[in-house]
Design goal:
14% of the residues lie in helices and 25% in strands. The protein is α+β, with helices and mostly antiparallel strands and 324 residues long. The chain has two domains: 255 residues, Alpha carbonic anhydrase (Carbonic Anhydrase II, Roll); 39 residues. The strands form two sheets. Strands 2, 3, 4, 5, 6, 7, 9, 10, 11, 12, 13, 14 and 15 form a 13-stranded mixed beta sheet that branches. The longest helix is centred in the C-terminal third of the chain and has 20 residues. The chain is globular. The protein binds zinc ion. Zinc ion binds next to strand 7. Its cofactor is Zn(2+). InterPro entries: CA_dom, CA_dom_sf, Carbonic_anhydrase_a-class, Carbonic_anhydrase_a-class_CS.
Length: 324
Protein backbone atom coordinates (compact mmCIF):
# COMPACT_ATOMS: atom_id res chain seq x y z
CA UNK A 1 0.00 0.00 0.00
CA UNK A 2 1.06 3.49 -0.68
CA UNK A 3 1.61 5.51 2.37
CA UNK A 4 0.60 9.06 2.53
CA UNK A 5 3.22 11.47 3.56
CA UNK A 6 1.64 14.18 5.54
CA UNK A 7 3.53 17.36 5.18
CA UNK A 8 2.79 19.76 7.91
CA UNK A 9 3.50 23.04 6.35
CA UNK A 10 3.94 26.06 8.48
CA UNK A 11 2.72 28.52 5.96
CA UNK A 12 4.51 31.80 5.89
CA UNK A 13 2.64 34.48 7.70
CA UNK A 14 4.66 37.27 6.19
CA UNK A 15 1.70 38.62 4.38
CA UNK A 16 0.36 42.07 4.07
CA UNK A 17 -3.37 42.35 3.51
CA UNK A 18 -3.75 40.38 0.30
CA UNK A 19 -1.03 40.70 -2.27
CA UNK A 20 -1.73 44.10 -3.75
CA UNK A 21 1.27 46.30 -3.95
CA UNK A 22 1.71 49.99 -4.49
CA UNK A 23 -1.41 50.61 -6.50
CA UNK A 24 -2.72 52.81 -3.77
CA UNK A 25 -1.60 55.59 -1.47
CA UNK A 26 -2.91 57.80 1.31
CA UNK A 27 -2.96 60.96 -0.81
CA UNK A 28 -3.20 62.18 -4.39
CA UNK A 29 -4.68 60.36 -7.36
CA UNK A 30 -4.25 56.98 -5.69
CA UNK A 31 -5.61 58.19 -2.35
CA UNK A 32 -8.57 56.80 -0.36
CA UNK A 33 -11.19 58.64 -2.47
CA UNK A 34 -10.07 56.67 -5.54
CA UNK A 35 -9.34 53.26 -4.05
CA UNK A 36 -12.71 51.90 -5.18
CA UNK A 37 -11.79 52.40 -8.86
CA UNK A 38 -9.05 49.79 -8.64
CA UNK A 39 -10.46 47.88 -5.65
CA UNK A 40 -14.27 47.70 -5.87
CA UNK A 41 -14.71 46.40 -2.31
CA UNK A 42 -13.51 49.80 -1.05
CA UNK A 43 -16.82 51.23 -2.26
CA UNK A 44 -18.90 48.78 -0.20
CA UNK A 45 -21.39 49.44 2.59
CA UNK A 46 -19.46 47.72 5.41
CA UNK A 47 -16.27 49.75 5.27
CA UNK A 48 -13.79 50.78 7.95
CA UNK A 49 -12.77 52.82 9.80
CA UNK A 50 -15.86 54.53 11.22
CA UNK A 51 -16.48 57.32 13.67
CA UNK A 52 -17.70 55.91 16.99
CA UNK A 53 -20.56 58.06 18.27
CA UNK A 54 -21.06 56.99 21.87
CA UNK A 55 -24.59 58.45 22.03
CA UNK A 56 -25.65 56.18 19.19
CA UNK A 57 -23.69 53.09 20.22
CA UNK A 58 -25.63 50.43 22.11
CA UNK A 59 -24.55 48.60 25.26
CA UNK A 60 -24.44 44.82 24.94
CA UNK A 61 -22.78 43.57 28.14
CA UNK A 62 -24.25 40.07 27.78
CA UNK A 63 -22.49 39.39 24.50
CA UNK A 64 -19.40 41.55 24.87
CA UNK A 65 -17.78 39.79 27.80
CA UNK A 66 -13.99 40.05 28.45
CA UNK A 67 -11.67 38.33 25.98
CA UNK A 68 -9.80 35.16 26.70
CA UNK A 69 -6.27 35.82 25.44
CA UNK A 70 -3.72 33.03 25.06
CA UNK A 71 -0.01 33.31 24.33
CA UNK A 72 -0.05 37.07 24.65
CA UNK A 73 2.41 36.93 27.52
CA UNK A 74 4.78 34.28 26.19
CA UNK A 75 8.06 35.05 24.45
CA UNK A 76 9.65 31.61 24.32
CA UNK A 77 9.79 30.39 20.70
CA UNK A 78 7.99 33.52 19.56
CA UNK A 79 9.47 35.13 16.46
CA UNK A 80 8.91 38.75 15.58
CA UNK A 81 9.68 39.96 12.13
CA UNK A 82 9.70 43.74 11.69
CA UNK A 83 9.09 45.27 8.26
CA UNK A 84 8.46 48.51 6.42
CA UNK A 85 5.94 47.72 3.68
CA UNK A 86 5.81 51.26 2.34
CA UNK A 87 2.51 51.99 4.11
CA UNK A 88 3.27 51.17 7.72
CA UNK A 89 5.53 49.50 10.25
CA UNK A 90 4.40 45.91 10.68
CA UNK A 91 5.45 43.12 13.04
CA UNK A 92 4.72 39.58 11.81
CA UNK A 93 4.28 36.95 14.50
CA UNK A 94 5.40 33.34 14.17
CA UNK A 95 6.14 30.39 16.37
CA UNK A 96 3.97 30.55 19.44
CA UNK A 97 0.22 30.54 18.81
CA UNK A 98 -1.19 33.80 20.11
CA UNK A 99 -4.97 33.70 20.11
CA UNK A 100 -8.16 35.37 21.28
CA UNK A 101 -11.64 34.03 21.91
CA UNK A 102 -14.78 35.00 23.86
CA UNK A 103 -15.20 38.78 23.80
CA UNK A 104 -18.34 38.25 21.72
CA UNK A 105 -16.44 36.12 19.18
CA UNK A 106 -17.89 32.74 18.25
CA UNK A 107 -14.58 31.20 17.24
CA UNK A 108 -10.87 31.19 18.11
CA UNK A 109 -8.78 33.75 16.22
CA UNK A 110 -5.02 33.45 15.75
CA UNK A 111 -2.77 36.53 15.73
CA UNK A 112 -0.59 36.98 12.64
CA UNK A 113 0.69 40.54 12.76
CA UNK A 114 0.30 43.99 14.23
CA UNK A 115 0.92 47.39 12.68
CA UNK A 116 0.36 51.10 13.20
CA UNK A 117 -1.34 54.16 11.73
CA UNK A 118 0.04 57.54 12.82
CA UNK A 119 -0.28 61.23 12.08
CA UNK A 120 2.15 64.05 11.46
CA UNK A 121 0.72 65.89 14.45
CA UNK A 122 -0.83 64.70 17.73
CA UNK A 123 -4.41 65.58 16.77
CA UNK A 124 -4.62 63.04 13.95
CA UNK A 125 -3.29 59.63 13.09
CA UNK A 126 -5.88 57.18 14.38
CA UNK A 127 -8.27 55.66 11.86
CA UNK A 128 -11.20 55.34 14.24
CA UNK A 129 -12.31 58.18 16.47
CA UNK A 130 -14.54 58.47 19.52
CA UNK A 131 -17.10 61.27 19.24
CA UNK A 132 -14.88 63.04 16.75
CA UNK A 133 -11.68 62.80 18.80
CA UNK A 134 -8.80 61.36 16.84
CA UNK A 135 -5.67 60.07 18.55
CA UNK A 136 -2.03 60.45 17.41
CA UNK A 137 -1.66 56.74 16.66
CA UNK A 138 -3.67 53.51 16.42
CA UNK A 139 -2.35 49.96 16.58
CA UNK A 140 -4.10 46.99 14.94
CA UNK A 141 -3.47 43.41 16.01
CA UNK A 142 -4.75 41.19 13.19
CA UNK A 143 -6.13 37.71 13.91
CA UNK A 144 -7.74 35.19 11.56
CA UNK A 145 -10.49 32.69 12.29
CA UNK A 146 -9.03 29.22 12.93
CA UNK A 147 -12.11 27.58 11.45
CA UNK A 148 -10.57 28.50 8.09
CA UNK A 149 -7.47 26.79 6.71
CA UNK A 150 -5.25 29.84 6.70
CA UNK A 151 -5.15 33.62 6.66
CA UNK A 152 -5.73 33.91 2.92
CA UNK A 153 -8.86 31.77 3.07
CA UNK A 154 -10.18 33.72 6.07
CA UNK A 155 -9.43 37.07 4.43
CA UNK A 156 -12.54 36.96 2.24
CA UNK A 157 -15.02 35.46 4.74
CA UNK A 158 -17.65 37.47 6.64
CA UNK A 159 -16.20 36.41 9.98
CA UNK A 160 -12.69 35.78 8.70
CA UNK A 161 -10.66 38.32 10.65
CA UNK A 162 -10.78 39.84 14.10
CA UNK A 163 -8.75 42.98 14.65
CA UNK A 164 -8.04 44.53 18.03
CA UNK A 165 -7.58 48.29 17.78
CA UNK A 166 -5.83 50.45 20.37
CA UNK A 167 -5.55 54.22 20.57
CA UNK A 168 -2.38 55.96 21.74
CA UNK A 169 -2.17 59.07 23.86
CA UNK A 170 0.85 61.29 24.41
CA UNK A 171 2.17 60.62 27.90
CA UNK A 172 4.99 58.88 29.64
CA UNK A 173 7.85 57.12 27.91
CA UNK A 174 6.70 53.61 26.97
CA UNK A 175 9.72 51.34 27.54
CA UNK A 176 8.39 48.14 25.85
CA UNK A 177 7.94 50.07 22.58
CA UNK A 178 11.70 50.50 22.32
CA UNK A 179 11.79 46.82 21.31
CA UNK A 180 10.35 48.05 18.03
CA UNK A 181 11.58 51.65 17.78
CA UNK A 182 15.23 50.72 18.40
CA UNK A 183 15.17 48.86 15.07
CA UNK A 184 13.67 51.67 12.97
CA UNK A 185 17.08 52.51 11.49
CA UNK A 186 17.12 49.00 9.98
CA UNK A 187 13.75 49.40 8.28
CA UNK A 188 13.93 53.01 7.18
CA UNK A 189 13.07 52.20 3.55
CA UNK A 190 10.28 50.26 1.88
CA UNK A 191 10.73 46.47 1.94
CA UNK A 192 13.43 46.63 4.62
CA UNK A 193 12.89 43.97 7.23
CA UNK A 194 14.65 42.50 10.23
CA UNK A 195 14.18 39.98 13.02
CA UNK A 196 13.74 41.53 16.44
CA UNK A 197 13.91 40.05 19.93
CA UNK A 198 10.47 38.81 20.87
CA UNK A 199 8.82 40.66 23.71
CA UNK A 200 5.79 40.13 25.89
CA UNK A 201 2.93 41.51 23.81
CA UNK A 202 0.69 41.95 26.85
CA UNK A 203 3.11 44.56 28.20
CA UNK A 204 2.33 47.00 25.40
CA UNK A 205 -1.44 46.77 25.88
CA UNK A 206 -3.54 48.83 28.32
CA UNK A 207 -4.22 47.26 31.73
CA UNK A 208 -7.98 47.25 31.35
CA UNK A 209 -9.32 45.47 28.27
CA UNK A 210 -12.91 45.03 29.47
CA UNK A 211 -14.30 48.21 27.95
CA UNK A 212 -14.45 48.10 24.16
CA UNK A 213 -16.54 48.85 21.08
CA UNK A 214 -17.61 46.26 18.50
CA UNK A 215 -18.80 46.53 14.93
CA UNK A 216 -18.56 44.69 11.62
CA UNK A 217 -16.34 46.29 9.01
CA UNK A 218 -13.50 45.90 6.55
CA UNK A 219 -9.77 46.13 6.01
CA UNK A 220 -8.85 49.82 6.12
CA UNK A 221 -6.46 49.34 3.20
CA UNK A 222 -7.08 47.94 -0.31
CA UNK A 223 -8.52 45.52 -1.22
CA UNK A 224 -10.89 46.58 1.63
CA UNK A 225 -12.45 43.12 2.05
CA UNK A 226 -15.50 43.22 4.30
CA UNK A 227 -14.33 40.40 6.52
CA UNK A 228 -13.51 42.11 9.79
CA UNK A 229 -14.95 41.92 13.24
CA UNK A 230 -13.63 45.10 14.81
CA UNK A 231 -12.83 45.65 18.46
CA UNK A 232 -11.77 49.14 19.52
CA UNK A 233 -10.62 49.46 23.11
CA UNK A 234 -11.56 52.47 25.18
CA UNK A 235 -8.45 52.55 27.38
CA UNK A 236 -5.47 54.09 25.58
CA UNK A 237 -1.77 53.23 25.44
CA UNK A 238 0.60 55.96 26.59
CA UNK A 239 3.61 56.84 24.45
CA UNK A 240 6.00 59.77 24.71
CA UNK A 241 6.16 62.58 22.16
CA UNK A 242 9.77 61.59 21.38
CA UNK A 243 8.75 58.03 20.62
CA UNK A 244 5.96 59.27 18.34
CA UNK A 245 8.51 61.47 16.57
CA UNK A 246 10.61 58.42 15.68
CA UNK A 247 7.56 56.98 13.88
CA UNK A 248 7.21 60.27 11.99
CA UNK A 249 10.86 60.81 11.06
CA UNK A 250 12.52 57.48 10.39
CA UNK A 251 10.30 55.39 8.14
CA UNK A 252 10.32 56.17 4.41
CA UNK A 253 7.56 55.52 1.88
CA UNK A 254 9.87 54.36 -0.93
CA UNK A 255 13.00 52.42 -1.73
CA UNK A 256 16.42 53.73 -0.74
CA UNK A 257 17.38 54.84 -4.26
CA UNK A 258 14.43 57.13 -4.79
CA UNK A 259 13.54 60.49 -3.41
CA UNK A 260 11.30 59.56 -0.56
CA UNK A 261 9.27 61.18 2.14
CA UNK A 262 8.59 59.79 5.59
CA UNK A 263 5.49 57.75 6.32
CA UNK A 264 2.90 59.64 8.36
CA UNK A 265 -0.83 60.29 8.04
CA UNK A 266 -1.19 56.68 6.92
CA UNK A 267 -4.82 56.49 7.92
CA UNK A 268 -8.06 56.14 5.97
CA UNK A 269 -10.78 58.70 6.84
CA UNK A 270 -13.99 57.49 8.56
CA UNK A 271 -16.45 55.69 6.28
CA UNK A 272 -20.27 55.75 6.36
CA UNK A 273 -21.80 53.52 9.00
CA UNK A 274 -24.84 52.91 6.76
CA UNK A 275 -27.24 50.50 8.47
CA UNK A 276 -24.64 49.16 10.90
CA UNK A 277 -24.72 49.53 14.66
CA UNK A 278 -21.79 49.94 16.99
CA UNK A 279 -21.96 48.15 20.34
CA UNK A 280 -19.99 48.63 23.52
CA UNK A 281 -19.23 46.20 26.32
CA UNK A 282 -19.91 48.87 28.97
CA UNK A 283 -20.95 52.51 28.85
CA UNK A 284 -17.98 54.89 28.72
CA UNK A 285 -17.21 56.58 32.05
CA UNK A 286 -18.99 59.90 32.48
CA UNK A 287 -16.73 62.90 32.74
CA UNK A 288 -16.68 64.50 36.19
CA UNK A 289 -18.53 67.80 36.50
CA UNK A 290 -16.13 70.54 37.49
CA UNK A 291 -16.70 72.96 40.39
CA UNK A 292 -17.01 75.82 37.93
CA UNK A 293 -19.80 74.05 36.02
CA UNK A 294 -21.77 73.57 39.20
CA UNK A 295 -21.50 77.21 40.30
CA UNK A 296 -22.21 78.69 36.91
CA UNK A 297 -25.80 77.46 36.90
CA UNK A 298 -28.19 79.02 39.38
CA UNK A 299 -31.92 79.53 39.91
CA UNK A 300 -34.58 76.96 40.73
CA UNK A 301 -35.55 76.29 37.10
CA UNK A 302 -32.00 75.39 36.30
CA UNK A 303 -31.83 73.18 39.38
CA UNK A 304 -35.02 71.34 38.43
CA UNK A 305 -33.69 70.89 34.91
CA UNK A 306 -30.42 69.56 36.29
CA UNK A 307 -32.27 67.15 38.58
CA UNK A 308 -34.35 65.93 35.65
CA UNK A 309 -31.25 65.48 33.51
CA UNK A 310 -29.51 63.64 36.32
CA UNK A 311 -32.38 61.21 36.74
CA UNK A 312 -32.52 60.76 32.98
CA UNK A 313 -28.79 59.98 32.98
CA UNK A 314 -29.30 57.56 35.85
CA UNK A 315 -32.19 55.93 34.03
CA UNK A 316 -30.29 55.38 30.79
CA UNK A 317 -27.38 54.19 32.88
CA UNK A 318 -29.61 51.71 34.70
CA UNK A 319 -31.19 50.46 31.51
CA UNK A 320 -27.76 50.35 29.86
CA UNK A 321 -29.11 51.56 26.59
CA UNK A 322 -26.51 53.81 25.07
CA UNK A 323 -22.77 53.82 25.51
CA UNK A 324 -22.57 57.37 26.81
ZN1 LIG B 1 -4.54 48.86 10.28
Amino acid sequence: MFGFVTLVLFASQHHTYGSVDDDWAYDGQKGPDFWYLEFPHCGGVRQSPVSIQTAEAVVDSNTLVPFEMRGYDSVQNLQMHLQNNGHTVQVDLQGVPISITRGGLKDVYLATQFHFHWGKVDTSGSEHDIDGTHYPMEMHIVHYNTKYKNFDEALVKDDGLAVLGFFFEVGKYNIPFDHIIDHFSEISHKDDHTEIDAFDLRRILPDNLDRYFRYYGSLTTPPCYESLIWTIFYETIEISENQLETFRHMIHVNYANQTSRYIFDDYRPPQSLNSRKIYCSKPVPTKKTTQQDQHSTSGSAALILMAALTSLTLLTDLLHLICR
